[in-house]
Structure formats: structure tokens, C-alpha cells
Amino acid sequence: MPTQGLAQEKIKIACIGNSITEGPDNYPTPLAKMLGDKYEIGNFGKWGHTLLRKGDHPYMSTEAFVNAQKFQPDIVIIKLGTNDSKPENWEYKDEFQLDLEYMVRTFKHCGSKPKIILCRCIPAGNNLYGIRNDVITKEIYPIQRKVAKKFHLKLVDLYTPFEQKVDSTYYVWDNVHLNKKGSCILAGYIYRAITGKKFTK
């Protein structure tokens, strides 16, 4: 009787982020459907959290951050920075690059030695909740580019595809959070960053 081959292990993807990652209309859900059964998606998003360790709700102080490392991912998607743009958080802007590098190094030292992908923040309209689009574009994005270059990481531009849609139905209710349609579009860009191919139904 022939010996059956062992089942191939799934490629594990840890999604790190805030409400765009954790919320009801999150992007990891459609991303999982796009990628199929060969992948396992771990959603480690935390609503309203910051990359900054001195932010009002620092992501790196959460159990989600610990669990993401225990997940032993093959790929890590980091989509943080939006909540850091609030005045009370951006007070510590001089530490943003240091903290981003710390997060990258932490995941690099995971036993699984994952590939890390950084994401540029999507646009934020009307400066709701204190989130400031000018900080996202003029200050946070240049730091993300610098860190991506330093560590030779892929940086996915999620800002440009939504730049002209801030006040459209691509957003749920407040020009900050994506609805299902917008999240599917965002997931498509992540899919392309992971596979190198454009998603087609």
C-alpha cells in the first residue's frame, strides 16, 4: 500500500494593526478568502492602538503583540500609524522610527524568521478623533519609507488607491474606517504584495 505524503503546512500570516485590521469590516477576512487554503491568517489587530510605545494605547503593550509572536508567522503585515497622528500621541514623534524598528526587529527574531511587509496608512478625512492626515502623509510615511529601506522590507502604498475616495462610499461612516467594499480593495493590494500577482476572481 503506497505511503501518502504528508500534508503541506500552511503559510502563516500575522496581521498587525488597529481598527482597519480588527474591526467588523476588516481586511484580513477577505484576504483569507483571496489566498485560499494554503494560507492561515492570524488577525492580531487592536482597535485604536498606536505603534508608539508612549501612545495612549500602545500596541506593543498588548497580549495581541505577544500572541502574534507565538503564532510563529511566515509573513507579518504591519499596518499601524493612523492613531499615532493624534496630537497627544505625536508628541512623541521623535520615537516613532525607533519604535517601528523595535517592532520589526522583534518579529525578525521570531523563531520562524518571517518576511515583514510594512503598509502605508490609508487617508483619513476630516481629522476625526484627532487623527491628522497631514501628519500621516508628511511625517509618518517618510519614516516608514526610511525603515523599509533600512531593513529591505516591502512597503505597500495603501494611501494612493484611496486618496480620491475619502468622502465616498468606500468608507463606512466617518472617513476613517473602510466598509466591506473598501476592505476588499485593500486586501487585494496586500494579496499582491504577498503573491506578486493581482487578485482575480
UniProtKB/TrEMBL annotation:
The segment(s) forming the SGNH hydrolase-type esterase domain are 15-182
Q: Which GO terms describe its molecular function?
A: hydrolase activity, acting on ester bonds
Membrane spanning stretches: none
Alphabetized InterPro entries for the sequence: Iah1-like, SGNH_hydro, SGNH_hydro_sf
Q: Which domain of life is it from?
A: Bacteria
PANTHER family tied to this protein: ISOAMYL ACETATE-HYDROLYZING ESTERASE 1 (PTHR14209), ISOAMYL ACETATE-HYDROLYZING ESTERASE 1 HOMOLOG (PTHR14209:SF19)
Q: What is this protein called?
A: SGNH hydrolase-type esterase domain-containing protein
Q: Provide the species name.
A: Bacteroides faecalis
